[in-house]
Amino acid sequence: MAFVLLTLRIVFRIILVIALADFLAGTIHWAEDAYFTETTPVVGPLFIRPNIVHHHHPRFFTHLTWWQSSWDLALVGALVLLAAWPLGLLGWPLGLFVALSVNANEIHKWSHRTRQENGRIISALQDWHVLQTPRHHGVHHSDPKNTYYCPITNFVNPVLERVDFWARTEAVIEGLTGVKHRVDTAVRGQGPGPAWLAEYRPNSSARHLQRAA
Ligand SMILES: [Zn+2]
Ligand SMILES: [Zn+2]
Fold first, then answer.
1. How far is the CA of 206 from the centre of ligand 2 (A)?
2. Residue 98: exposed, middle, or buried by beta-carbon count in 10 A (0-12, 13-18, 19+)?
3. Which ligand is nearest to the CA of 52?
4. What is the pTM of this model?
5. Closest ligand to Cα 61
6. Residues 6+ positions from 17 with CB-CB distance below 8 Å
7. I want to staple 64 with a disulfide (CB 3.0 to 4.6 A). Which of 68, 77, 138, 206 is the partner?
8. Which residues of the chain are under the pLDDT cut of 70?
9. Who surrounds ion ligand 1 at CB < 5 A?
10. Which pLDDT does position 211 carry in this prediction?
């Protein structure tokens, strides 16, 4: 009995840690999509520009390496572990949380890759719903692109949708500050997108891809 309880406790904690990592990644994604623009100082060129590219040309980042997609998360993850060490907070829950968070962009990338590009193991993990499936992530890329922000699992987004989490949070922010969800030029009727997007267009981006690879 004690063994069963211990196992259940560990499984529950694993699911909780995975859900928290997915929710954090989704919250960052939502803030980028909703409030920051490419002209925002520092974060604009570093994070929002790739984000805008992704909404217009979702397959572009599948050509980038793990480091190109994850250097920023890896840096933050390392800082979190360094800060947790003297505080005695190191352990498997934090390790799992950081490992998932650091790889959130990469897991998101797998949702946009073909099965052939992903290989058998990742495809099987998606089929078993251990990782988010491309079909599930496709909801985020459907107009008006303002839902399903969490990129790691299939179970956090529906819970947030049930309570209308993002729309309610945006309503509170608008009520307090007057700031609304920004225009997304990748949504039909809200374009056209910025001129610089041309170099990321699949057919005309061969040169850029070579540079980025
Ligand atoms: Zn998005
Ligand atoms: Zn995506």
1. 21
2. buried
3. 1
4. 0.90
5. 2
6. 93, 96, 97, 100
7. 68
8. 203-213
9. 33
10. 44
| Ligand 2 centroid to residue 151 C-alpha, Å | 8
Task: Say how far apart CA 3 and CA 187 lie, in whole Å.
Answer: 52
Domain residues for 42? 2-212
The pair of three-digit structure tokens given for residue 143, joined into one six-digit string: 């107009």
How many Å lie between the centroid of ligand 1 and the Cα of residue 90?
32
How many structural domains is the chain composed of?
1
- Name every residue whose Cβ is closer than 8 Å to that of residue 165 and which is 6 or more positions away in sequence: none
Backbone angles phi, psi at 35, to 5 degrees: -125, -25
The residue type of 132 is Q
The confidence score (pLDDT) of residue 10 equals 94
Q: Position of tokens 């997304």?
A: 184
Q: What is the pLDDT of residue 204?
A: 56
CA of 85 to the centre of ligand 1 (A): 33
The 8-class DSSP code of residue 1 comes to -
State the Cα–Cα distance between residues 150 and 160, nearest whole angstrom: 9
The distance from CA 3 to its chain's CA centroid, rounded to whole angstroms, is 36
The crossing angle, in degrees rounded to 10, of helices 49-56 and 2-34 is 90
What is the C-alpha to C-alpha distance for residues 92 and 170, in angstroms, rounded to an integer? 34
CA 129, CA 133: separation in Å to the nearest integer? 7
